Amino acid sequence: MADNRIRKVVVLGGGTAGWMSAALLSKVVSGGLEIELVESEQIGTVGVGEATIPQIRYLCDALRIPEAEFLAEVNGTYKLGIEFVNWARLGDRYIHTFGDVGRRLGVLDFHHVWVRGRELGLMADLGDYSFNALAAYANRFAPVEKLGDTGLLGIGYAFHFDATRVAGLLRRIAEKQGVRRTEGRVERVELNPETGFIETLCLDGDRRVSGDLFIDCSGFRSLLLGEALGVGYVDWSHWLPADSAIAVQCEGVEPLTPYTRSTAHSAGWQWRIPLQNRIGNGHVYSSPYMSDDEARTILLSNLDGRAVTEPRQLRFTTGKREAFWHKNCVGLGLASGFMEPLESTSIHLVQAGLGRLIDLFPTRDFHDVDIDVYNQRTHFEFDSIRDFLILHYHATERDDSPFWDYCRTMEIPDSLQHKLDLWRSQGRFFRNDDELFTIPSWVQVLVGQRVLPSECHGIAKLLSKPDVEDYLEKINGFLKNAVGQMPTHREFIDRTCRMRETV
């Protein structure tokens, strides 16, 4: 039998995507595989992906890094969710958390009981029944798995961190595992004249790097997947019109909050990501509706502390590649597409892409059926995340600016419209296949954006007011008691994972 093993993987580009690819592949593929990462110090990385979702914890597991050690290395803090301010109306705020909300009552998801309570005049906030939300607003954290025998689950959490430190840590891990780094700029890409596969990266100084499988982590340029192989780009800016961002870091303040904040402005939104010793900030906006100077002024006037870096300008087009794996090249990170960081999905998409690649790791035959499955699953994930992001913009009552008028009245994908119609009817929501965001995630955002069902589930209508009131009060009581026993976020950080000054 012919030896058709992949002998060499070439990763183009460093940063979080490139070094994560190198570190994970070198960890899970034992022996016989050479991995070379090509990057140029002359080409900067975006480096602002500092908020994550709970799947980031799988990375620590895969690389066998204790969470506390990881956070100490990367200036990390804990993240219980994202607070959204001014999205449905000016003055509104709610948290989309990573934990469950309430608990099921028989066949009913918790939100059906809560909607029934509203019909009966019980107008408590949905967040009153979220362990994560109550802990977040109390600035408390501890890794609680479950609340005794109450039937309530514990805390779901992710991380905030310094993306540059993460890339540095991943690089050290990868190089320790045998990954070779080559400094250089790609001047030309040589393709096989018969198959069209990538054969060689021609670098400055007449150097050549050849391989069997290429991973494109070259950022927005998508030098291999987009430029060399000609894979087109699907533009979603008509649904997600933000196309610019300005990022800056500022001094930290107390208390140390265990959540990201997203504050909507007149033509976009501002992120706030608290690390142990500083805060990451940025203003995402739509340039047809706001000038760069105005966006910069808004950002700098809404910082918690003194700016410690110069504001950095970014440009982007939200969308995805027409294919994520084409011939012998897989695109990851910005080379594969761009989702604005509203729900902190960028690093997850790199992880998920790597997971699929590992599951479908090819031979040099590169079977079409494997490539097709990879692309189908990745398209599904991108599309479902897209719909969740669009929901935040479209489900608004704001009419105070042309930008929000556009978002509120724009046509939306049929897939999202179907979800909204089903929800508005009787609060029904069904998760499709293994889409990233769960029912509690959709429900928290729908309710937070003031999209409420016209009436409750038919079975929930059988519940009396005393039954609902007692059920809700007990859940809220259990959660408040648990939160009261937790340390503050800062106390927990200082005790378990205080930042190391040098990495």
Cα distance, first to last residue?
A: 47 Å
Helix percent reads 25-40%
Arrangement of strands in the largest sheet: 5-4-14-15-16-13-17
Which structural class do you get from the secondary structure elements? alpha+beta
Radius of gyration: 24 Å
**Global geometry:** globular
Number of strands: 21
The largest pleated sheet is described as:
7 strands, mixed
Overall pLDDT, averaged? 95
Number of helices: 15
Give the low-pLDDT segments: none
Describe the structure.
By secondary structure, this protein is α+β, with helices and mostly antiparallel strands. It is built from 15 helices and 21 strands. The chain has helices spanning 15-28, 56-63, 67-73, 110-119, 131-137, 163-176, 223-228, 292-300, 346-359, 368-394, 402-409, 414-426, 439-448, 465-484, 489-496; strands at residues 8-12, 34-39, 77-79, 81-85, 93-97, 158-160, 180-183, 186-191, 198-203, 207-210, 213-216, 233-235, 244-251, 260-265, 268-274, 278-285, 312-315, 319-321, 325-326, 329-331, 337-338. The strands form 5 sheets. Strands 5-4-14-15-16-13-17 form a 7-stranded mixed beta sheet. It has a 6-stranded mixed beta sheet with strand order 7-2-1-11-20-19. The longest helix is centred in the C-terminal third of the chain and has 27 residues, at 368-394.
